[in-house]
């Protein structure tokens, strides 16, 4: 089943077009990078896919359905700077929040829920930090916790906005590995990124975007077409 299908998507803000007729479809089992300059509409595309902003025109199907019907199957990791932890929260609680994103967190987790959250933390190599406050962690460690939180959600689709910014090399390697594992399990991973330099290490498909779709396909093909 097609993971994402976008037909002639137009989105504008106050009359200014941010996306101008984007069409593409992504099959499951891919890690897809969305690359383009500042203001290219990368975040807008992700927000449209999450149904967070209205579209002027076009059709979006996720897992064959309208986005609002499958929202719970989509995990979203916003840019780290967009996440405002203005209350103290431990690493484990932050991940538990991913287990039931639509429920209040101030309930005692069941043993099974806690075990699942710990397993997700283990997958990103952050289990030993479970009692630490998120705010105390380095950028790379925070990003790994947010990834664990997304894993806890048991999603089919993962959207990550600039997950490699301000991240140390070992965290970067860990994130790449986890994304590849997801892709091997038949999940779909969409990652906003700002340049092509490491595209080959991070992704197997690329979407080059600049208001309109410049190019879409396997990483090597897309890079060849740009040179
Ligand atoms: P990117 O993520 O590629 O940097 P964005 O999707 O954030 O691009 O933005 C695309 C265009 O839409 C930019 O020109 C930006 O200024 C504009 N834009 C984005 N969000 C808003 C908003 N909330 N209100 C008005 N304009 C916006
Ligand atoms: P901004 O408009 O400030 O750039 P974003 O669009 O990046 O903010 O994110 C809006 C908020 O919606 C985020 O805090 C994010 O946690 C939340 N959100 C939206 N969709 C999901 C989802 N499927 N799973 C978890 N959180 C989500």
Question: Which SSEs are present, and which pair or pack?
Answer:
Elements: E1 4-13, E2 16-26, E3 31-35, H1 42-49, E4 57-62, H2 67-70, E5 74-77, H3 91-99, H4 111-123, H5 139-152, E6 157-161, H6 169-184, E7 188-193, H7 199-202, E8 205-210, E9 212-218, H8 219-226
Parallel strand pairs: 3-7, 3-8, 5-6, 6-7
Antiparallel strand pairs: 1-2, 1-4, 8-9
Helix pairs in contact: 3-4, 3-5, 4-5, 5-6
Can you tell me about this structure?
Strand 6, helix 6 (169-184) and strand 7 form a beta-alpha-beta unit. The chain has 227 residues and is of the alpha/beta class. The two termini are 33 Å apart. The radius of gyration is 17 Å and the shape is globular. The chain is built from eight helices and nine strands. GO terms for molecular function: ATP binding; ATP hydrolysis activity. Belongs to the ABC transporter superfamily. This is Iron/zinc/copper transport system ATP-binding protein.
């Amino acid at each position: 089943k097609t993971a994402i299908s976008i037909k002639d998507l137009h989105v504008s803000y106050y009359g200014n077009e941010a996306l101008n007729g984007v069409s593409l479809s992504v099959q499951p089992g891919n890690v897809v990078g969305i690359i383009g300059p500042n203001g290219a509409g990368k975040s807008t595309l992700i927000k449209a896919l999450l149904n967070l902003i209205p579209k002027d025109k076009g059709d979006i199907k996720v897992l064959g359905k309208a986005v609002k019907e499958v929202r719970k199957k989509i995990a979203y990791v916003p840019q780290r700077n967009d996440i405002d932890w203005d209350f103290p929260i431990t690493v484990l609680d932050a991940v538990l929040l991913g287990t039931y994103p639509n429920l209040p967190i101030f309930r005692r987790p069941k043993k099974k829920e806690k075990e699942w959250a710990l397993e997700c933390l283990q997958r990103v190599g952050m289990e030993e930090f479970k009692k630490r406050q998120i705010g105390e962690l380095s950028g790379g460690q925070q990003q790994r916790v947010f990834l664990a939180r997304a894993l806890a959600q048991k999603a089919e689709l993962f959207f990550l906005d600039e997950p490699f910014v301000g991240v140390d090399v070992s965290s970067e390697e860990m994130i790449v590995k986890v994304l590849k594992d997801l892709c091997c399990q038949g999940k779909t991973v969409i990652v906003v990124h700002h340049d092509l330099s490491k595209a080959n290490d991070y992704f197997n498909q690329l979407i080059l975007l600049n208001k309109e779709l410049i190019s879409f396909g396997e990483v090597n093909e897309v890079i060849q077409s740009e040179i």
